[in-house]
Design goal:
Helices cover about 35% and strands about 20% of the residues. It is built from five helices and seven strands. The chain has about 250 residues and is an alpha/beta fold.
């Protein structure tokens, strides 16, 4: 019977154009995937170096950072005295295996011309939650005596599996910053948000929220992934060459 890929001529040691094209296409795809993983490895190494340097980076004024068009992983200081008493939104999330909410609020910047969303921290749900329920709404929290410090982050993009946000129920599943700012009655926001690290006297406001503002463990397995793809490419070449010899010997 005819060879399903290489045709009748392949049985005589002469592979068809179709068979060669299939093999070439597979080889190109595997090599491209290997190269892509090498590029990802270089990106991840740069990111890990940046995060290591960020641990000792001094906070810079938020307006200065935004004016320089910096958007990700920069330590900033924010003047927002009533930060702990501003209205809050609940962003669903999971931390350390426990479901809960990241509490989001908005602060004005540049004299009220614009705003920035601030992630105040994670408030756990369930019987193990140790954050006071009042932290969901603290209108009487005292003004902060100095600037707050946080990390400027870009929001993750919602995917097709991300549930739709429910602003009317104050339940959010993705950081849609413009929609969040509108719901909070704030001016159009910056395209990045501030993940709060510390705020003066925040503990006195009765809200010991869990703040994880930087990735704690970023695996860098891209080299092994690249070697896997390159190995598969080499195997494909080996199979193709072996097929040629086998067909010719027949």
């Amino acid at each position: 019977s005819p060879d399903p890929i290489f045709g009748d001529r392949a049985r005589k040691g002469r592979p068809t154009v179709l068979g060669a094209l299939f093999s070439l296409a597979g080889l190109i795809i595997l090599v491209c995937l290997g190269v892509w993983q090498l590029q990802r490895m270089a990106w991840k190494e740069d990111l890990l170096k940046h995060l290591a340097a960020l641990k000792s980076q001094a906070a810079r004024p938020l307006a200065e950072v935004l004016a320089g068009n910096e958007k990700e992983f920069v330590r900033v200081s924010l003047e927002c005295p009533d930060l702990m008493s501003r209205p809050r939104l609940r962003l669903y999330g999971i931390q350390d295996g426990q479901p809960g909410y990241r509490l989001m609020t908005a602060c004005p910047i540049a004299g009220g011309v614009a705003s920035v969303l601030v992630d105040l921290g994670f408030e756990a749900q369930g019987p193990q939650a140790d954050t006071p329920a009042a932290c969901l709404n603290t209108p009487s929290a005292p003004d902060l005596p100095g600037p707050s410090v946080g990390i400027l982050r870009e929001p993750d993009t919602a995917t097709f599996v991300t549930p739709a946000n429910q602003p009317a129920s104050n339940l959010w599943y993705s950081r849609d910053l413009p929609a969040m700012a509108k719901t909070l009655g704030a001016a159009p926001p910056a395209t990045s948000f501030v993940a709060l690290e510390s705020a003066p006297s925040a503990a006195a406001a009765g809200c010991p929220l869990l703040r994880r503002v930087l990735p704690s463990d970023l695996p860098n397995n891209h080299l092994s992934y690249a070697l896997t793809w390159f190995g598969l490419a080499a195997a494909l070449v080996g199979v193709y060459v072996a097929m040629l010899f086998r067909r010719r010997s027949d």
